[in-house]
Design brief:
70% helix, 281 residues, MetI-like fold
Amino acid sequence: MSKRVAPLVVLSWLIVLALLVAAVCSPQVAPHNPVRERLIDRLLPPAWGKDGEWRYLLGTDHLGRDVVSRIIYGSRVSLVVGFAAVAVGGSLGIVLGVMAGYVGGRLDESIMALADIQLAFPTILLAITVIAVLGPSFINLVLIIGLSGWVTYARIARGQVLSLREKEFVEASRAQGSDPLRTVCRHILPNMLSPLIVVATLDLARTIILESTLSFLGLGIQPPTPSWGGMLSDGREYLLTAWWIATFPGLALMLTALSFNRLGDWARDLTDPRLRRTELR
């Protein structure tokens, strides 16, 4: 019997799909130019508030820019950086983890020692230091955020390889004379994808929040490109007089992170056979 999908999972899927549509179709969806300044319309409240205008549904910021349009374009930045950083960190971590688990010996010890060294540094402090030295740019931002998360993938991949390399089908592949690369690609990687996909889904929330944090500090996406972290930074000085400037980007960031986390939990429950066996008892 098929398991019923929880309402929160459905809601999370809807939020993520809405974000993807907004990111891909930003020019068509956004009602205004997100970087156009119109000082005569500065600090207008949301449409339902006093002095609000329906052409600016969520109000305007201190430069008269439409908050809705900036949130829509900001979703593009957050999702592109998030997916790109996960791809970088996941690829590096999986390669190093597979090498450590399959080869073992000194290589395993060296890779795990490098992982322990990185874990000793706070991620946000390390990212701030490197970006302050290299300078803020899209490429540097993706690389720094991606490289900050490779350790998780490496540890999980190593553990999976240590478990799978002793299985009968892997032993049979080696006995038939298959080279290590063929054995890993054909027999080990397909059997370790499920936990890695779950980790990648959960890691998306971390990368999006980290990108917003760096943008908030002025070390991420640079103005005038809209980003949720930059909008939060712009609105912190107007929390008492124009609360909507920071509130709505903050809500968008919160809902995005919660949605990816919930989808990660759902993917874990879906792919973990131990959880399915527990439910059947």
